[in-house]
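Input set for joint prediction.
Command: fold jointly, output tokens.
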Amino acid sequence: MSLLLTGIGLLATQDPELGEIVDAALVIEDARIGWLGRAGQAPAADTAVDLGGRCVLPGFVDSHAHLVFAGDRAAEFAARMTGRPYTAGGIRSTVAATRAASDERLRLNLARLAAELRAAGVTTFECKSGYGLDVETEQRSVRIAAEQTPEVTFLGAHVVPAGIERADYLDLVCGPMLAACAEHARWVDVFCERGAFDVSESRAVLQAGIAAGLRPRIHANQLTAGGAVALAVELDAASADHCTHLSPADIDALAGSDTVATLLPLVEFSTRSPYPDARGLLDAGATVALATDCNPGSGFSTSMPLAIALAVREMRMTPAEAVYAATAGGAKALRRTDIGRLTVGMRADLIALDAPGYLHLAYRPGVPLVARMWQAGQEVALGLSPTQ
Amino acid sequence: MSLLLTGIGLLATQDPELGEIVDAALVIEDARIGWLGRAGQAPAADTAVDLGGRCVLPGFVDSHAHLVFAGDRAAEFAARMTGRPYTAGGIRSTVAATRAASDERLRLNLARLAAELRAAGVTTFECKSGYGLDVETEQRSVRIAAEQTPEVTFLGAHVVPAGIERADYLDLVCGPMLAACAEHARWVDVFCERGAFDVSESRAVLQAGIAAGLRPRIHANQLTAGGAVALAVELDAASADHCTHLSPADIDALAGSDTVATLLPLVEFSTRSPYPDARGLLDAGATVALATDCNPGSGFSTSMPLAIALAVREMRMTPAEAVYAATAGGAKALRRTDIGRLTVGMRADLIALDAPGYLHLAYRPGVPLVARMWQAGQEVALGLSPTQ
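tokens >
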């Protein structure tokens, strides 16, 4: 089956970088892109859809999200907005609610957030565990996450939970917990931060994960400029995430590596923190990704478009750089070569905006602009079902 | 006909100020609120809807929006984000597109923005002219606006258009243009600002409008701390809008008046400007409203929830203060006593959030949380139809 999309006012392919075709068309053949180019040269197809001048771009790739949990922390958020600082400690309150929740409850919560992500234009998302912090709940978390996405990350090393010694917990994470989770996960992650795990502990966790067949990614330099970015580069992690506090050496290390700097401005927004130095990273030649970091503590948003708007407003990325970071950048942060760009042979994951161009993602903050979505060539409904 | 809404997890009535009822119910009788209180005490009604624990609050009142125009200014926005400052001059490019547009085009554009406002939870919006700046197009603008809302504002004095002398344009605004527009409008407004109209000119425009039966509101102190706020108070304007640059005397004047300070943080967001001193205004006792200022130049967003999130993040309003400003504050800025709060006898304009409380409006920025809406007691569909 082939489908011709015509009437594309602007096709933002992201290949080559920031590539754009005006007055374009695109042919989907089964799950892949079969052809794209100027509308006047489009081949025939089994069916056709006229997009009426809309802008088409790759579906967003959200490479950092914590979506398996129960409860919320709205009151903690409101207290923080009156001046209380964000620390890693609040994670433990979500852990209690998550352990107490049934599989069905966790599944419903994840399904709601996955639907929100789709409505926000996300065609691929990563999903971390890390609110179980015992073998049973971590295993439940990665198993449930794997029902919704192949990009599952084991984050047993989120914080040390109450009731267990630090060294014992690290042994648990690197031993029985990892063993129970590895078959459901593709990635291993660690919160390398003051109040969570230091560089040496983080290295041990990631190396154990690598030995179990997982690939590393790291929560790095969110609250302090520690050694997490250097560790990410040392281990060839796919991504160093947050990068809120970077030294010049960190920027150079990222620019000289295959490790993506994944920036999460919705977290800086919701914690009233300074934004990361995106310009420094981009100007040095590092690859930057944008992701939501949707989680109940430091930033409970699924809005990739708002992350793009913040990147432009607060981090002085151009709209084109921000869209690239939210698509091709996110794909690189997941080491995926089949998504994040629109070229022949790529997976047909794409969105059409109710706007003539992608500038509108930043120009119209907060406005729901994602009009239509195709995932692996199939059109997907974008309505939100009510919270259960 | 009566309708019982049950299962309201939190009813944020805004009366008395920030009033809240946990585990509540509400009865709509025709277009009005017939009863509200604890769920266990609810009377019978013809039909019932269980809201499953959702938060209910008054529909948002957007007291400042420019919605009748053609064209967009995405490229000007992108240039501004690279460092070019915002000035009043860009308005003229929208004027050219608006004059050239058919009534039908203007109607379609307005309908799309009105649908976006509804999807964002707005049950009442104000709509200004000001992109015509000749008698014919200003008259078309207010006439088309009046098809969608009773809160129509004549803003012929937006800027002096090209091709006419300043004094001649003021004569036109206060004479034939006002005469052609007054029957379709409730309000008269002026852009009192460097590059637009000075205090003396603004006073003349507003006094002419008052003489024609309109009530005054003012674009005040957006770019500079001139005398616009003092003029607003002098003329008992319903609202002084923007208030980005305020002197202590301005704050005192507003606090001692019935003039609402309408803050428009989506504009500061989209122009990368400093935010107004909401805390100074609130602590002095002024009434604050939040509105979108949706317009193609300085901020093209219809998202009242994002305005609330910005008020909390950037202006240090509490979530409760921000919701009050977006509901009861907006109603006062339109001198409306029948909307903006939920009490017996008020118009049944209300929304249900896909969230247990209103904190989520700031806690979940960019997420579409408005699940259901009733306007004058009738449920309204919230889907967006595609741009024409």
